[in-house]
Design brief:
By secondary structure, this protein is mostly beta strands. The chain has a domain of 41 residues: Phosphorylase Kinase, domain 1 (2-Layer Sandwich), CATH 3.30.200.20. Helices cover 7% and strands 29% of the residues. It is built from 1 helix and 3 strands; from the N terminus they run αβββ. The chain has a 3-stranded antiparallel β-sheet, with no helix packed on it. β1 and β2 form a beta hairpin.
């Protein structure tokens, strides 16, 4: 006579694997693209800034503390002579 363990070894019923739904790939949430036509960046001019103070002067030019008129951000600007 066969033991229960021996009967399991010779069991010919097919193994049933449950069918699981395919996992959706993880994607990052991306905001919709808004078509926006931007004008090409133009060169900045000395007149685009407000001079706040002279920081230094050397043999080749001057360094100013300036504030950009459109954004209000403060920068250092070096002004060099072409001569």
């Amino acid at each position: 006579m066969l033991d229960d363990e021996d009967e399991m070894a010779f069991d010919k019923t097919p193994a049933v694997t449950p069918i699981l739904p395919k996992a959706k790939p993880k994607t990052q949430s991306v905001a919709p693209v808004e078509e926006e036509i931007k004008e090409p960046a133009r060169a900045l001019k000395f007149s685009d800034f407000e001079i706040m103070q002279l920081l230094g002067e050397g043999s080749f030019g001057k360094v100013f503390k300036v504030k950009k008129k459109t954004t209000g951000k403060v920068y250092a600007m070096k002004s060099m002579s072409k001569a």
